[in-house]
Write a structure and sequence with these properties.
The chain has three domains: 86 residues, NADH-ubiquinone/plastoquinone oxidoreductase chain 6, subunit NuoJ (Four Helix Bundle (Hemerythrin (Met), subunit A)); 31 residues; 35 residues. The chain is mainly α and 201 residues long.
């Protein structure tokens, strides 16, 4: 019990510290690295709660895909972050207001769900019962199958929209036409020039 409490406080403190550093770090690459650290500690908290499936999803999806993608985008794009920070004072009041509202919602949710969490904190899955992953899959693909299919449809539409926006016709941009490249003949591609000895082109 003491070991789990120490692990909880360790994961929680590091997660909160990483979250603060995400928004206060001056280097955007450091912010992404602190975000990855926050995800790992949140996954550790999920493991302590017995939700190993959520911990695995958090590490695989967010750390392995989203955060790494953010890191590559930040490192590859030449963004003037100094110019972006100039308008922070104009939106500081709105940001603080939104933060206070979110904090109040989190406190209210934690206060409302605290009795249920305490009641199920000591629950251990017996060998005859289904694991968390099996129970989650059974509920997701039976009771919430239409919501699951709907979310997949929304993601499909978003993917098609991103592809359409990427391949739109723009003036002044040379596009690659694969059909024309394949249809080229040898005469159109290669020119054989006979250079006399001792002379250049």
């Amino acid at each position: 019990m003491i070991l789990s409490a120490l692990a909880f406080y360790l994961f929680a403190i590091v997660a909160v510290f990483s979250g603060v550093m995400v928004i206060t770090a001056r280097n955007p690459v450091h912010s992404v690295l602190f975000l990855i650290l926050a995800f790992f500690n949140a996954a550790g908290l999920f493991v302590l709660l017995g939700a190993e499936f959520l911990a695995m999803i958090l590490v695989v999806v967010y750390v392995g895909a989203v955060a790494v993608l953010f890191l590559f985008v930040v490192m590859m794009l030449d963004i003037n972050f100094t110019a972006l920070r100039r308008g922070i004072k104009q939106h500081l009041a709105l940001g603080l207001a939104v933060g206070v509202v979110l904090l109040a919602e989190l406190i209210f949710s934690a206060h409302a769900l605290a009795p249920q969490v305490v009641a199920h904190a000591g629950a251990v899955t017996s060998p005859g019962e289904a694991t968390n992953t099996q129970a989650l899959g059974a509920i997701l693909y039976t009771h919430y199958i239409y919501a699951f299919e709907g979310s997949g449809l929304i993601l499909l539409v978003a993917m098609i929209g991103a592809i359409v926006l990427t391949h739109r016709q723009r003036s002044g941009v040379r596009r690659q036409t694969i059909a024309k490249q394949i249809a080229r003949t040898r005469a159109e591609t290669i020119e054989v020039v006979k250079v006399p000895t001792g002379h250049g082109i």
